[in-house]
Amino acid sequence: MTTTGPVALVTGASSGIGKAAALALAAAGFETVGTSRKTSGVGRRDGVTFLALDVTSDASVTAAVGEVIDRFGRIDVLVNNAGIGSSGADEENSVAQAQRVFDINVFGVMRMTKAVLPHMRAQGSGRVINISSILGFIPQPYMAAYAASKHAIEGYTESLDHEIREHGVRALLVQPAGTNTSFEANAVEPDMPLQIYAEQRRIADQVAAAFNEDGDDPATVAKAIVAAATDSKPKLRYGASRNARRISAARRIIPARAFDGQIRKINKLAGR
């Protein structure tokens, strides 16, 4: 089976931003494939074909991308959305915990990208859209591993974009701010908790939860993803909402000492 229309592949599409993005791309005219670890076999609902995929497995990635190519003959857009959060002070999280975060958030993106690039280069077009975060350019205490993974995605995507642009392929970033999803509920908890950090960890978790509860609807982020997929002259970075763009501007404009103070104030951290 092949299609004459564009084909989009969205990872982590069972809920939240991924689900909203898959539905929005389907509404925009893409033959859309959404993936999830929880999907068994192949199914279709709401105009989206769902496949099982574990982005931490080379074999699973190869099989899923091959399935899409076999079914539709092409991949025009890859949305690397699958991700996991983390909480706790860095000292409370083992290296194994950080490796788990990076295996999904960073190496999962790399696995997927490496699997689709040969097809995109062969057809002379394509877009790899990586879901970053405002934590890809600002710090967040008690989420160090997650912030590091998103900083890594920023550098990876910008560098990759220079490599593949001459082949008609682009690598782009979408940067959500707080988003009203269940993402925080699935965050990696510290596996070596220390009492000295317990109270501040509790405060930081409350700050993060409130930021997301008051955050953007996933459909707002999906709109930015569709823009990245369809703009005739795409931008490298898409702030997914007014709030994300405001924070990005603040990071660039506000003096470093003042910005640092705001981070500490928001998170109710003592000292200067």
TrEMBL record:
Swiss-Prot/TrEMBL keywords: Oxidoreductase
Record SUPFAM superfamilies: NAD(P)-binding Rossmann-fold domains (SSF51735)
Keyword set includes Oxidoreductase: yes
Keyword Oxidoreductase appears in the UniProt entry: yes
InterPro entries (UniProt xref): NAD(P)-bd_dom_sf, SDR_fam, SDR_oxidoreductase
Pfam families recorded: adh_short
Similarity comment: family membership: Belongs to the short-chain dehydrogenases/reductases (SDR) family.
Protein name, entry field: Oxidoreductase
